[in-house]
UniProtKB/TrEMBL annotation:
SUPFAM superfamilies registered for this protein in UniProt: UDP-Glycosyltransferase/glycogen phosphorylase (SSF53756)
UniProt protein name: Alpha-1,4 glucan phosphorylase
Keyword Endoplasmic reticulum attached: no
The species this protein was found in: [Clostridium] leptum DSM 753
Family: Belongs to the glycogen phosphorylase family.
The protein's required cofactors: pyridoxal 5'-phosphate
Amino acid sequence: MTSETEKRNKMSQFQKDVISFLRLQYGKALAEADATEIYHSVSAAAMCQARKNWGRLEEGKKVCYFSAEFLVGRLVSGNLVNLGLADQTEELLRENGVDASVLEEIEDDALGNGGLGRLAACFLDSAATHGIAMNGYGIRYRYGLFRQSFENGFQKETADRWLRFGDPWSVRREDERVRVDFKGQSVWAVPYDYPVIGYGGRTVNTMRLWQAEPMEEFRFDLFNEQKYDKAYEERNRAEAISAVLYPNDDTDAGKRLRLKQQYFFSSASLRDLVKKYEGKYGGDFSHFSEEYAIQLNDTHPVVSIPELLRIFMEEKGMSFRQAFPIIRQTFAYTNHTVMAEALEKWSVKLFRSVIPQVYRYVMMLQRSLLKALEQKGITGQAQAPYLIMDGSLVHMARMAVYGSHAVNGVAQIHTEILKKSVLKEWYQLTPEKFQNKTNGITQRKWLLQCNPALSRFITERIGSGWITHLDQLKKMERFQNDPETLRRFGEIKRRNKQVLADYIEKVEGVTVSPDFLFDVQAKRLHEYKRQLLNAFSILDIYYGLKEGRIAGFTPTLFLFGAKAAPGYFRAKGIIKYISEIAKLIDGDPAVRGRMQVLFLTNYGVSYAEKLMPAAEISEQISTAGTEASGTSNMKFMLNGAVTLGTYDGANIEIVEQAGEDNNYIFGARIEEIEKIRESYDPVKLYQSNPRLRRAVDSLVDGTFSDGGTGMFRELYDALLKGASWHQPDHYFLLKDFDSYQETRLRANREYQNPELFYRKCYLNMANAGKFSSDRTIRQYYEEIWSNR
Ligand SMILES: *Cc1c(COP(=O)(O)O)cnc(C)c1O
């Protein structure tokens, strides 16, 4: 035998497939192939493995997770890990002289916006890993959330062309396309199926993303008459529906497009289910809710409720009395926010002009609701908070609660707020519907995959059971007083900081030191998340160091990662402000070597995977009562960072698990905020606190420039004068400033005793078991989906 044949014989089937694919498709050997070619070959060969078990769970109840976004990140890395092919891939590449990180250069993060989409992705992973038949349904946007860059400190957006390297993980199912109708327009919804591979590869579920296409590709007749633009018009109009995630909805045209998107994927997914159901049971729909559970991820897919009613009544000949109980038994709704502006409402006029055929069924739901209210003795004005339609608006959250058998919040405090305020009247009407399901994250992505060093260490100590049963991390607590364990743990953190520093050097062109304390705030930019409070605090520390007011300060790297919505002017102002602070500090030799601020470019899942393992302080500083749950707080915790945060969202449960002493909690609690809201006087605070005043004044006193945009003045006014829709300092930055600063500096001091500080980090990691999405998904399964 030649050595070539010998080598081939030793290869796994997967490795042979990679080689064959390269040869057949590109006529190349591995050593000659470029990154894109390798990416396609590895993906294709892995797809062969995934297909073996794909769609095996045909029997029994199927859970359908309807979501406008699935923020899965890079598909290739997660899929290889779950198929158990990551090592084989690395080995194959290494033996052929190729750096395994080539795959990281290809494929951008698919396909969402923030926490809600990432949660959907974690759920898919957990369900598949634990053998639950759960499929995702959404939209195959051509462009995801924009790609972010900075120009002179201002955010710039460009299209996220995530498909530019091709899409080897999807299978187009032309044969399963369905038709979706709008007023004056009909389109095809063509499904693209992505395998959702559970850890170990035994269960492979499906993420089905719909793409909008014209009924008629191209009008040959019009083209022939030299009407070139007209020949493509229908195609462009159809493709616009699945063109971008969250199109700007400042205008009426933008709102119309969003509603179209929601109806598009809701209707297509329901048609798909109804068709499959009929194939099994024929025309008797009485078993529908035994066959399918549909989870509505926020209000975006809630139009599904009247749409299924329409299909049942208009097309399947059922009466309302027959159809509605089945519908209610099928749907469940997850609320993700207490922000009033995010509880969707559509104008009746718009709704009727886009999907008049569905509007009739919204009215029917409203009539049925009114009857139910009357039976409970709720009449006249008392009906107002329930109305699905009140004069000019359709309230999607109300429709969701009425049409579902279960409604859940995403952390204990959040569910309590739903019951006590946001959906208070509904809770009084149907308390049995309300449940809590505290969010979670998948440890396969957020530890096993992103932090190999820590994963190996944990497995060494307690075995690998934690990969599918995160509770087992608790066994690590045993070693909390073992100096050798803590030393190794600290060493791993240190190495991960170096890895991040190298990455930052490469992609940002900025040198940072792993000797600094790494303090990270990474999440979407929003006023309620209070990146501006973080910025004020950093500026105050800067002045404090210069004046010698702060002694014994541990050198700190303050990292921010955040995208601001393109139309959110104040959020963009905060980005510019932080970059101005960074510039000031960079340019001042007096603080060099003691602090550094950096706003990372294009924060997304892939960046998060680099950040979590290296972070030491996790900034979770939202105003109490505003962050529904948060999930980045869990990712940081799992990777051994302490939380510097408020009593908000899941922070409360994190502290409950890991101990208040092992975290840094500050600020007003929700009860206090509720109490002082009416009489709150931020101007007084500002006037009586010179340090706070100096930080706030930097927005307008010439310390920094916003390039004449007026951004900084607007931020200043929002704090001290209020804005059109809110009171001054709506998010209580000034209120929490002192206690934040004090707590932050305490954490910073304690870091100087590494044994003490790393023990806290370690205990956070060891107590993160509760925050696995495996636990969350099991609760949904037992308490919502199998509930009949
Ligand atoms: C986890 C995650 C989020 C959610 O962060 P929160 O701090 O919980 O809002 C947002 N974006 C990305 C890329 C994430 O991975």
